[in-house]
Amino acid sequence: MGNRLQIDSVLRADVLVIGAGGAGLRCAAEICERRPGTNVVVVTKVFSPQKSHTAAAQGGMAAVDPKDPVDKIIYHMFDTWKGSDCSADQNVIKKVCESAWEQIVWLEKHGMHFSRTEEGRIAKRPFGGHMLNFGEVKAFRAAYEADRTGKGIMDTVWGESLKYGVVSLNQSLASELLFRNGRCTGAIVFMEQNGKFVAVLAKATVMATGGKTRMYQVTSNCRQNTGDGLALILQAGLPVMDLEAVQFHPTGIVGPGILASEALRGEGAILRNKDEERFMERYAPTAKDLAPRDLVSRCIMTEIREGRGLIHPDHKLPHVWLDLRHLPDHVHKTRIQEVSGFFSKFVGVQPQKELCPVAPTAHYQMGGAPTNEFGEVQQDPEQIISGLYACGEFAAASLHGHNRLGTNSLLELITMGKVVGERVVAYLDDVEDPGNVPEDGGQHVFGRFSRYLEAQGGERHADIRHALRVLMTDKVGVFRTEDGLTEAIEELKALKERAMRMELSSKSLVMNQELLQFFELDHLLDVSIVIAHGALHRRESRGGHNREDYPERSPDFQYHTLAHMTEYGKVTLGRRPIDMSIYDAGGEHREKFGIIERQY
């Protein structure tokens, strides 16, 4: 069967961008603006880049105008550091926060329609963990386009890619990275529509494949977010970083997991338990409902565990209430119209008159492929992989540490997309042609696809995927323990064995969704066991990683977790130092960037 699998054609480009969401296309736009005529090829799993998951982002993008009379960039930097549970890299925090407003201006000049105040200024709303005066009062810092900010960003960067003639390979999977003498020279791409394998050889390769929380029962991620890019990094023998740091957004709509955006609480929505008590005041007396996401998620789960939650009659899932009934009609109709419609469509609730059921939903991966502050992928803390770059949620520079503040995700993908684009342009001036396809090109993907095509057995993909979701939710979810994580690792190994006995009902390579699901399941299993190993090793609670048996943050774990896995289940862990350059510089407000207590 393996003789059916071969590289059918070769495509050459200056730059290959894997992932056509906000980060990937912002990077492509920067490259084309700075170096007209550059041949850029982007690869996306979806039918069109406009269907990328960035388009689902609702609430806004954090940015401080340097001319703002109240807010200051240093406050944004402090909130990001504190929100990360003192585990973000301060050089990256400084770079991203200082360039944030510049990117708001770039988006607007390139066609994005930000919402406006009555005075004509860009409107802003508050978000969890964003505060003035080093934590004293909530900040209005998130620029937005109603409740579809991500869609506005995607329309803008996609339009730029069209303007510059960027070539898009749609419904295609990057299935193996190519290397020559330690330098990344492109990737093998599987084209779903014709079942062909194309080698895309490029002088520079940018990975921007987004998130990966589809291994959980309830998730806000689209079905394509299955950790493909991280699996390719592991397959290439490179490390991933901080995968134990998974963010559960506190207000997913019960059932589908779709976000009830933090923008709702920014507009004044209130979390209530079954007795309609406003419970966040007990946990975060200053920030209340706008505390950081990791804290709010744990508070909701605590309310449910202690009997103050409810069970949804249709979905049979536990939840609390989100109260929007007191918000003015014009807010419902102009600022949160789309999200309000989700409640009506998916749970039959009218938010202007009824309480809305919400619960934590797996949402964001703070970790990813380790990069330096310029988006260059690292082999180790001292060495980069020539020709390989990463940005967006796929990458870990690390702006977020172990917890991301709302609206810092859109900020990161736009700013770091731009930074990587700049770096790639400088690299292209001197780099040599990538040459031909390496002799060992295809060994990984052809071996894997051959196994799918030749496997026999009675195991069903749907059964294994369901078991994976239940396992990760129960034992590697919001709350974790030593026993649960140890059991999860052994159960994941068993699921991997079962996955080897799945049999395809069709052996065709063309538009075979079952074949794609086998490929994605392998990636989910790969990433899941690394998450579990990282969580087992980190005997503390920090940000999105919460160990009930080690409930406090520990100075023994003041580092980033690096993980290698070249054979399933055999995970080797290492460390990368957390950058403390703002603190080490010793300037004004130095003490705010030390290892501080995290109170809201």
Folded structure, characterized:
This protein is of the alpha+beta class and 600 residues long. Among the domains are: 247-362, Alpha-Beta Complex (Flavocytochrome C3, Chain A, domain 1); 443-560, Methane Monooxygenase Hydroxylase, Chain G, domain 1 (Up-down Bundle), CATH 1.20.58. Helices cover 34% and strands 22% of the residues. Strands 1, 2, 6, 7, 8, 9, 17 and 18 form an 8-stranded mixed beta sheet that branches. Strands 11, 12, 13, 14 and 15 form a 5-stranded antiparallel beta sheet that branches. Strands 3-5-4 form a 3-stranded antiparallel beta sheet. It is globular and about 65 Å long. The model has no long low-confidence stretch (mean pLDDT 95).
Please state the overall shape, judged from the principal axes of the Cα atoms: globular
Question: pLDDT below 50 for ≥5 consecutive residues: which ranges?
Answer: none
By secondary-structure content and strand pairing, the structural class works out as: alpha+beta
Classify the helix fraction into a percent range. 25-40%
User: CA-to-CA gap between the ends?
Assistant: 60 Å
The share of residues in extended strands comes to 15-25%
What is the name of the CATH superfamily of the domain at 443-560?
Fumarate reductase/succinate dehydrogenase flavoprotein-like, C-terminal domain
Return the CATH topology of the domain at 443-560. Methane Monooxygenase Hydroxylase, Chain G, domain 1
CATH architecture assignment of the domain at 443-560 = Up-down Bundle
**CATH level 1 class label of the domain at 443-560:** Mainly Alpha
**Overall average residue pLDDT:** 95
Helical segment count: 17
